[in-house]
Design brief:
Layout: E1 6-8, H1 14-26, H2 35-49, E2 57-63, E3 68-78, E4 89-98, H3 107-121, E5 126-128, H4 136-140, H5 163-166
Parallel strand pairs: 4-5
Antiparallel strand pairs: 1-2, 2-3, 3-4
Helix pairs in contact: 1-2
């Protein structure tokens, strides 16, 4: 296993992180924005959110001193306070990426362990993510499962007809 230090992202990492984000998404999907434009936009977005001590975002990076080899981000989100025994703090795990030439060396496992450990230490009830088809088995090994208690509405999805509309 390669021993590369993991640390919190710093403001000066944002451009490299934005470039990795572009690489990450361009690996599997057709891009619709030029790399230079995306990197400028994403760098600005990250600088506002990944400042030291900022909340609700955290980002960890694999840093071998020469370059960033990977990253994982977590956004905390709260539910409105509850008078019943129902957890109120959750996390969204995203932008989890290790550069292809460094995969299969345990780096992704170490990154995910770091993020999940941080979540446990803060009493996070649930961690959600949107896996790629290729990453589902990896996440299953950590105990991630498809939720049974959440609904999703996609604004571009056709709306079902109501019962009243379907009766002829």
């Amino acid at each position: 296993m390669v021993r590369v230090p993991i640390r919190f992202a710093r403001s000066r990492d944002c451009r490299a992180l934005a470039e990795l984000r572009y690489r990450f998404r361009a690996e599997t999907e057709s891009v619709t924005e030029t790399k230079s434009r995306f990197v400028r936009r994403c760098t600005s977005w990250m600088k506002k959110r990944f400042r030291a001590g900022s909340c609700p975002w955290r980002c960890w990076v694999l840093d071998d001193v020469k370059r960033l080899l990977g990253h994982v981000c977590v956004q905390l989100f709260e539910k409105i306070p509850n008078p019943v025994n129902e957890p109120e703090l959750h996390a969204y795990l995203t932008n989890f990426y290790v550069i292809p030439e460094m995969r299969d060396q345990g780096l992704g496992k170490r990154l995910l362990d770091k993020a999940l450990s941080w979540c446990r230490a803060r009493g996070i009830d649930a961690v959600i993510l949107w896996p790629s088809p290729a990453s589902k088995l990896f996440y299953h090994q950590y105990g991630f499962v498809a939720p049974s208690d959440i609904f999703e509405l996609r604004h571009d999805a056709p709306r079902p007809r109501s019962r009243r509309q379907t009766k002829a």
